[in-house]
Amino acid sequence: MSSESWVEIIEPGSGRKVYANTGTGQCLWKPPKGVDYKPCSDDQWWELTDAGSGRCYYYNATTKATIWEKPKTGDVVSLSRLQEAQKEMLEQEKKEVEEK
């Protein structure tokens, strides 16, 4: 895991902090062990897809700003990757409970 690519960012749905690797898309609810991460800032964006047009847009959960063009600076995290990670975590937790 590259420590340079981990960021702490606000998850738009819950307002909770999540930890995302901007290079791999990996997302965690707890800080990654053994690496440094960049704390939350006003220069972090979620990449989302508009259901009507299929176009990507960008949402900043700290400032509540929404833009259509990909930010030239800052960290961009794919919300769909976070949702995939959440699904995998829930499936793993369910499996662990069933094994007990």
Query: What's the Cα radius of gyration?
Result: 14 Å
Poorly predicted runs of 5 or more residues: none
Topology as H/E string?
EEEEEEEH
Average pLDDT for all residues? 85
- Secondary structure tally: strands: 7
Number of helices: 1
Judging from the principal axes of the Cα atoms, what is the shape?
globular
Question: How would you describe what is shown here?
Answer:
By secondary structure, the protein is of the alpha+beta class. It has one helix at residues 79-99, and strands spanning 6-10, 17-21, 27-28, 44-49, 56-59, 66-67, 75-78. The strands form 2 sheets. The protein has a 4-stranded mixed beta sheet. A 3-stranded antiparallel beta sheet has the order 1-2-3. The mean pLDDT is 85.
In short:
It is built from 1 helix and 7 strands, in the order βββββββα.
Give the helices and strands, then pairings.
Elements: E1 6-10, E2 17-21, E3 27-28, E4 44-49, E5 56-59, E6 66-67, E7 75-78, H1 79-99
Parallel strand pairs: 4-7
Antiparallel strand pairs: 1-2, 2-3, 4-5, 5-6
